[in-house]
Amino acid sequence: MQFKIVRYRDQNGVYHEGSTIQCLRRKKVFSDAHPDGKNVQKVVAKIDRWARELPSHVASVLTDEEKSEWQEWRVKHDETRLRTVTRFELDALPDRLQKTAQALQFGAGAPTVEEADAIWAGLEAMAKALKAAGFERPKKSKRHVVYIENEQFEPLPNFRPPGTDSHRAYQRMLDDYAARQKVVVTDPLKKT
Fold first, then answer.
1. What is the pTM (predicted TM-score) of this model?
2. Nearest 5°: phi and psi at 185?
3. What span, in angstroms and rounded, lies between the C-alpha atoms of 138 and 77?
4. What span, in angstroms and rounded, lies between the C-alpha atoms of 144 and 185?
5. pLDDT exceeding 70 applies to what percent of the chain?
6. Burial (Cβ within 10 Å: 0-12, 13-18, ≥19) of residue 47
7. Per DSSP, what are the bridge partners of residue 42?
8. CA distances from 140 to 98, 134, 192 (A)
9. Domain residue spans in the chain?
10. d(CA 112, CA 109)
11. For the chain, how are helix, strand and coil distributed in percent, rounded to 5?
């Protein structure tokens, strides 16, 4: 028995998974053209994709072995779906946390006591899960200053026509470059 999620194509030609599962039974068909038999799949029943149990009309058509195959397929389908959804949530989490922090900083509204408790509980659960996965909290790196002593690079002179905006902008950049005696190297992981 094969269980197949019906797919449909929208107006733009993009395929989507539908909400129906086809139960396909394979059987051999003998004919003059195929005396040894030809494998053919036949749709035996259709099930709602999100159904937790087999409907009675479908259960009466399927054999006990096919019912157990459906249970195995259901478990595998649920695991795949859960993995996909949790991966999406994991990808979106850093951005959501950053936006939530910005909302609190800019006074978008103070959370209630229950919401604050839920946020702290979620952060603690996340910290435990990260530790269990082998990701320790990174240590903060110290900023350090690098001094340039023997500078080999000499910027090009300003070839822009004097009096133009591009001349003034390039001249400002040259003046800023000449005024700097040191370059500060910051932590690349920290967003400023």
1. 0.51
2. -100, 120
3. 36
4. 6
5. 85
6. buried
7. 25
8. 18, 18, 15
9. 2-90, 144-185
10. 9
11. 40, 20, 35
Question: Alpha-carbon Rg of the chain, whole angstroms?
Answer: 32
> According to the 3-state scheme, what is the secondary structure of 162-184?
CCCHHHHHHHHHHHHHHHCCEEE
C-beta of residue 49 within 8 angstroms of C-beta of residue 20? yes
DSSP 15: E
Structure confidence by residue, pLDDT tens digits, 97-134: 888 888 888 877 778 889 889 989 999 999 999 899 89
How far from chain centre, in Å, is Cα 72?
A: 27
- What are the DSSP E strand ranges found in 10-142? 15-29, 38-48
Whether 47 contacts 21, CB under 8 Å: yes
182 - beta bridge partners? 147
pLDDT band for position 181 (cuts 50, 70, 90) = very low
pLDDT tens per residue across span 151-163: 556 667 777 888 8
- Are 118 and 126 in contact by the 8 Å Cβ rule? The answer is no
Nearest-angstrom CA–CA distance, 80 and 71: 14
**Is residue 158 within 8 Å of 172, Cβ to Cβ?**
no
Residue with structure tokens 């194509």?
9
